[in-house]
């Protein structure tokens, strides 16, 4: 949901001795010796086999309080989700902050706000239009106790225009929801491709400038910072 740079909870991926002793691992001849827990669970022959690999009761718990825990609990950071078909994220958005416009390629996302108020902007797909034929943008203000849907593949971004931290829990309909951040992905293309895509007259210098300002504060967020007496840049 929110794009937060973070390292995954690597401790959850490390192999415990009991896991290495699981019978499934001895079966295949050419299998690498250091399979991640997620890989072992993916290779397991059945759900019962997965229970035997997840031998600790705590394997079924994800702890966002752990140092370095990813906001995204999914099949990679929380291996017990392998085969579950769901993932979940918890995130806190500082006052006057926003997430970069992104999509989740493999999951619908339901964001429940547990504290504060968030504005969700969602841009569906080609053909979803307003009465006058322009591209539809779905805008919703959701506050504590409300949830908003960002359908699989739809572009979306969340803004916190409030002076307080916003907190949300996002449920995903895949254990491998994935994320594509639109602006950096677009600007990863070669300059001449970008220039053609944006239209004639956009120089390489301008493209470089755009690359550098991606993620810079928007006007509305600066106004929010003024309103909230926030002096330092939050991005
Ligand atoms: C088309 O309709 C939308 C939503 O009603 C509106 O925001 C937009 O300004 C309109 N565009 C034009 C070109 O009239
Ligand atoms: C910001 O500062 C002004 C002037 O000191 C004050 O009147 C206002 O209440 C403050 N706003 C917030 C949200 O703290």
TrEMBL record:
UniProt superkingdom: Eukaryota
Name under which the protein is recorded: Spherulin
Lineage, broadest ranks: Eukaryota, Fungi, Dikarya, Ascomycota, Saccharomycotina
